[in-house]
Specification:
Number of helices of chain A: 0
Order of helices and strands of chain B: EEEEEEEEE
Largest sheet of chain B: 5 strands, mixed
Largest sheet of chain A: 7 strands, mixed
Oligomer: heterodimer
Number of strands of chain B: 9
Number of helices of chain B: 0
Strand order of the largest sheet of chain B: 1-9-8-3-4
Structural class of chain A: mainly beta
Radius of gyration of chain B: 14 Å
Number of strands of chain A: 11
Structural class of chain B: mainly beta
Helix content of chain A: under 10%
Shape of chain A: globular
Shape of chain B: globular
């Protein structure tokens, strides 16, 4: 069974340019997460989707970041315009979702963004 | 979710058991202990989780003390590929209203030496 798929794996852009990351969760997983991981730190949640609904986006910097999950499957995270401080690894995770006592999350390999 | 404390780094000889400790003295009755690891340049990988009984799977064993205030992740025969940052995370059940996201601390950098 395929795991969480993310693309691209690496992205280098100049500041003020837009960038987008794509995530395909594990088949059948209703919940999708986007995490941000700065160098030397643990991942931090940006946004969580239950199916196509964003139910927790309190940590998403809405002035420049946006996300969507059309049809409740794939998701795209966008930054426009990118700033130097956005250089980090962007991780996508998925889990089965509602109805579970415990809900184990499975992570993709991440997209490493470098803003010059 | 309860806070966890882990040593920043540990070494282990290849082929020996790696025992990674985690303190979670403020854990409450409905909170689970999860372990993830992150190999360099990869996403976090789920290892195991447990509530109060010891758990074992193909990757590792999880030993939780009777008072649940600490736990130990055991990799029975460490290999070079087990070198990674290991995260111990305490998280409540969905029905308890606990946050759905995982709250990662600093973890333990395990280095398996040849």
């Amino acid at each position: 069974e395929a795991g969480v798929v993310q693309s691209p794996r690496y992205k280098i852009i100049e500041k003020k340019q837009p960038v987008a990351f794509w995530c395909n969760p594990i088949s059948g997983h209703n919940t999708l997460y986007w995490y941000l991981q700065n160098l030397g730190q643990g991942p931090e949640l940006l946004i969580r989707y239950e199916n196509e609904e964003a139910v927790d986006d309190s940590q998403l910097p809405k002035d420049r970041f946006s996300a969507e999950r059309l049809k409740g499957v794939d998701s795209t995270l966008k930054i426009q315009p990118a700033e130097l401080g956005d250089s980090a690894v962007y991780l996508c995770a998925s889990s089965l979702g509602i109805g579970r006592t415990t809900d184990t999350q499975y992570f993709g390999p991440g997209t490493r963004l470098t803003v010059l | 979710d309860a806070k966890t404390t882990q040593p920043p780094s540990m070494d282990c000889a290849e082929g020996r058991a790696a025992n990674l400790p985690c303190n979670h003295s403020t854990i409450s009755g409905n909170e689970y202990v999860y372990w993830y690891r992150q190999i360099h340049s990869q996403g976090p990988q789920y290892i195991i989780h447990g509530l109060k009984n010891n758990e074992t799977n193909e990757m590792a064993s999880l030993i939780i003390t009777e008072d649940r205030k600490s736990s130990t992740l055991i990799l029975p025969h460490a290999t070079l590929r087990d070198t990674a940052v290991y995260y111990c995370i305490v998280r409540g059940t969905i029905s308890s209203g606990s946050a759905r996201q995982l709250t990662f601390g600093s973890g333990t950098q395990l280095t398996v030496l040849p």
